[in-house]
């Protein structure tokens, strides 16, 4: 099981727990879809509306044969309604404070974070929506860091054989944080569904 399969399993388990916390009945829009939408919306341009981003998600998932809750894209108003109903307090503020302070030694992470996060570019204009987008931002940055570590520090070649030759390891292409961010954003649906293997070469 590679790092992305483990991430996928953790993500699905976490989303399932949160679904039980806020959903009174089974809905078309679940936590997984909301989180994917939030990460897409904070990584795009503010002039892209909800409908544009939802259609982009549907196109990506159909192309990659990733299951969707329904054939046609959900409406923008349905996503707005789901965000309002989405439980805000499953993770306490203290959890994010603790996580933030544990990462102080990784200065590059915060440099990357500050370079892509512009307060005036938030789509939401209320406290709950801004907090959702901030949390999606934190998740996106951490997925980027995990990907960077995976690509730049793995000791195996594409066939799974251990690389012991220093020269061979040095020839492995290094990815910058920004390039890893672009990779994560481009393949978010595949990453979340654990179907990233064919894009890792």
TrEMBL record:
UniProt GO molecular function: DNA binding; transposase activity
Protein name: Transposase IS4-like domain-containing protein
Transposase IS4-like domain location: 92-143
Gene Ontology biological-process entries: DNA transposition
InterPro entries, per database record: RNaseH-like_sf (IPR012337), Transposase_11 (IPR002559)
Pfam families the record matches: DDE_Tnp_1
Record organism: Xenorhabdus vietnamensis
């Amino acid at each position: 099981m590679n790092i992305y399969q483990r991430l996928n399993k953790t993500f699905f388990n976490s989303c399932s727990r949160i679904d039980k916390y806020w959903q009174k009945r089974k809905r078309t829009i679940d936590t997984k879809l909301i989180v994917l939408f939030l990460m897409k919306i904070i990584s795009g341009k503010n002039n892209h509306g909800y409908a544009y981003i939802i259609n982009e998600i549907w196109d990506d998932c159909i192309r990659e044969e990733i299951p969707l809750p329904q054939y046609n894209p959900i409406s923008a108003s349905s996503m707005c309604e789901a965000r309002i109903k989405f439980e805000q307090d499953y993770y306490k503020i203290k959890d994010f404070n603790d996580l933030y302070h544990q990462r102080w030694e990784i200065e590059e992470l915060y440099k990357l974070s500050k370079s892509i996060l512009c307060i005036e570019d938030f789509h939401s204009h209320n406290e709950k929506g801004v907090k959702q987008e901030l949390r999606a931002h934190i998740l996106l940055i951490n997925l980027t860091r995990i990907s960077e570590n995976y690509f730049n520090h793995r000791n195996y070649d594409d066939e799974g054989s251990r690389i012991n030759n220093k020269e061979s390891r040095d020839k492995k292409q290094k990815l910058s944080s920004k390039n890893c961010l672009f990779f994560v954003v481009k393949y978010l649906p595949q990453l979340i569904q654990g179907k990233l293997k064919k894009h890792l070469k």
